[in-house]
Design goal:
The protein has one domain: L-amino peptidase D-ALA esterase/amidase (4-Layer Sandwich), CATH 3.60.70. The strands form 4 sheets. It has a 6-stranded mixed sheet. Strands 1-2-5-6 form a 4-stranded mixed sheet, covered by helices on one side. It has a two-stranded antiparallel ribbon with strand order 7-8. The protein has about 400 residues and is of the alpha+beta class. The chain is globular, with a radius of gyration of 22 Å. This is Peptidase family T4 protein. Belongs to the peptidase S58 family.
Length: about 400
């Protein structure tokens, strides 16, 4: 009788964690109707996967772009924002300006590490098309926000397949639809805990004193070792490895098991040299000021840790939170016009949550980030990519069977 590998594809269709395990406790608060980043009113998103390049071998290009617009008129109306760097082996452009002013007035583009320049240029190309003068000149201020993780194991990253036009297209087509998950957008070629990873989302609705608020999270998950992967405390990654080891001891010459072991050894060696990263974007319509949003961004660490993230030395774990509640005018002082006098201090009406009542926002941020990571892993599909590298999706049938003892 042939051995059944722990890494063989499951019969269960790729599904989100909430659908796979309906009795799993994912927090005290309910998700929004889409359980996605775009449950936050006004937030728009788009994903593109890229699988070809004229100079690349077939199957070796697996990358993409995730575009997030904080609001439709992000160019004139900034959002308050805050950042947290859990581990800094990564890049998020525009972060100095956000830390300096607490303002986000740029799209957020997530892509691969070698595509940061193309994404940066693409934002400018879109803005010049929309807001340049008849000569194509500009007199406004914009620092693009681009985050990255490294997909070089599955993607021939040196081919620079992401182009500025991909970013322009994403900005044109961004919508309030639920964000596709798994092998999508910037997460197309990403790995998570040695499983296929990628893009994941979740949201929570928080009852407020006068109205309900929404917190939404999007992750580009590309970090971690299998041994550390957990689902609500259950050591699923370790259990899968133990099952695989038992099968190998019982069937030491089984060709399928040997092939799987070889793939895992190759992946482990690659990840030990360069662990991946995770970018987390948190949106809310709760009125928060920049310092509060820095605090919210820090809570993404809790969700990451619950899933097994440890912030290893070569991992870029960067979290950005923004609020759509207050609209802060920007582009009010340019070379051509001064809508305000920069030498005469003026005030803006700003609303923000009382710090004494902010706990549920912190808690739901952690819950949404955790679920977003699990959705990224559960929705991702097995992929063979650059250099014939294969990374298996999490076996959902096996995971469900293991989770039964913990539910």
């Amino acid at each position: 009788m042939a051995a059944t590998s722990s890494f063989t594809a499951a019969d269960t269709p790729r599904s989100r964690i909430r659908d796979l395990l309906p009795t799993l406790n994912l927090g005290r608060f309910a998700p929004g109707p889409k359980n996605s980043l775009t449950d936050v009113p006004g937030v728009l998103a788009h994903t593109q996967s890229i699988h070809s390049h004229p100079a690349a071998a077939p199957g070796s290009i697996n990358t993409g772009v995730t575009t997030i617009l904080p609001r439709k008129d992000w160019f004139h109306q900034a959002c308050f924002a805050g950042l947290f760097r859990f581990n800094g082996s990564g890049e998020m452009t525009g972060s100095h300006w956000i830390e300096e002013t607490g303002l986000l007035h740029s799209p957020i583009i997530l892509t691969n590490s070698f595509a940061v320049g193309a994404a940066y240029q693409g934002i400018y190309e879109w803005a010049i098309r929309e807001y340049g003068d008849e000569k194509g000149s500009v007199d406004w201020f914009l620092l693009p926000v681009v985050g990255e993780t490294f997909d070089g194991y599955m993607n021939d990253i040196a081919k620079f397949s992401v182009k500025p036009e991909h970013i322009v297209q994403g900005m044109d087509q961004a919508s309030a639809d639920a964000v596709p998950e798994g092998n999508t957008g910037g997460g197309t070629g990403m790995l998570c805990h040695y499983f296929k990873g990628g893009t994941g989302c979740s949201s929570r609705v928080i009852p407020g004193e006068k109205k309900d608020y929404t917190v939404g999270a999007l992750v580009q998950a590309n970090y971690g070792a299998m041994r550390d992967f957990r689902i609500k405390g259950a050591p699923i990654g370790r259990l899968i490895l133990e099952d695989q080891e038992k099968l190998m001891r019982a069937n030491p010459v089984d060709p399928k098991l040997l092939a799987q072991a070889k793939l895992l050894i190759k992946l482990t060696e690659a990840k030990d040299k360069k662990d991946g990263s995770i970018i987390v974007v948190i949106a809310t319509d709760a009125p928060l000021h920049p310092t509060q949003l820095q605090r919210v961004a820090k809570r993404a660490t809790i969700g990451l840790a619950r899933a097994g993230g440890c912030g290893h030395n070569p991992s870029g774990d960067i979290f950005l939170a923004f609020s759509t509640a207050n609209e802060i005018p920007v582009q009010t002082v340019t070379a051509q016009a001064r809508k305000v006098d920069p030498w005469t201090p003026s005030t803006l009406p700003i609303e923000y949550v009382d710090d004494q009542t902010i706990n549920s926002i912190f808690e739901n941020t952690a819950d949404a980030v955790e679920e977003a990571i699990l959705n990224a892993v559960c929705m991702a599909e097995t992929m063979t990519g650059h250099d014939n590298n294969t990374v298996s999706a999490l076996n959902l049938d096996q995971m469900k069977e293991m989770m039964e003892r913990y539910l």
